[in-house]
Amino acid sequence: MAWRDTLVKLRDSVAKARTEKQREAETLLEERRDHRMKLQEMANSLGITLLLTEMNTVLMEGHGEVETFSSWEPLGPLLEVGSILPGFDDDDEDDDDFEEDDVDVTSSVLSWDEGGERELVVDLGWDEDGMFLEVNGEETRHERTALERALVQAFKDELGL
C-alpha cells in the first residue's frame, strides 16, 4: 500500500505543478497579447506606414515599395500600404511556442532602386526592456516628430547626402 500512497501523492504534486505552469503560461500569453496590442496602437498613432508612403510618393515619385509585416504573423505576411496592423487570433498556434525572451516586432520597409537596392526600415518592437522604435537600426523616441527626423536622416544616409 505504501507504493500506491506514494504514487497518489506524486500525482497530486504533479497536478499542482502542471496547474501552476499552465497559469504562468497563460499570464505570459496575456502579457504578450497586451504588448502586441500596444505595438499596434503605437504604430497607428505614429503613422509609420503613412510616413513611408508619403516619402515614396514625394521622394521616389511612387517608384518605391512599402511593405509591413509582424513577427507574430505566420511567414510575416505583408500588408497593403495604409492598412492597420493585423489583429491577433486567439487560435494562433505560434503563441504556444513562445519563450519569455522572444521579441515581438512590426517592421515597415520602404525599398527602392537608386544606384543599387536602398531601404528604410522602421522597427517597432517589444523586448525585455520594453517598447523600442528604430529606423535603420538607430533607436529613436516614440514621437511622430522624432520619427520624421529619423526617417529624413536615414534617407540622407542611404543616399550618402
β-sheet strand percentage: 15-25%
Assembly state (oligomeric)? single chain
Return residue spans where pLDDT drops below 50 for at least 5 consecutive residues. Answer: 75-101
What share of the residues lie within helices? Answer: 40-55%
Q: How would the global form be characterised?
A: rod-shaped
Mean pLDDT: 82
In N-to-C order, the SSE pattern is: HHEEEEEH
Supply the key terms:
161 residues, alpha+beta, 5-stranded antiparallel beta sheet, rod-shaped
Task: Explain this structure.
The protein is of the alpha+beta class and 161 residues long. It has 3 helices and 5 strands, in the order H-H-E-E-E-E-E-H. Strands 1-2-3-4-5 form a 5-stranded antiparallel β-sheet. Strand 3 (117-127) and strand 4 form a beta hairpin. Mean pLDDT is 82; it is low at 75-101.
Mind sketching the topology for me?
Blueprint: H1 2-46, H2 48-59, E1 65-70, E2 104-113, E3 117-127, E4 130-135, E5 138-139, H3 144-159
Antiparallel strand pairs: 1-2, 2-3, 3-4, 4-5
Task: Give a summary of the structure in a few sentences.
This protein is an alpha+beta fold and 161 residues long. 45% of the residues lie in helices and 22% in strands.
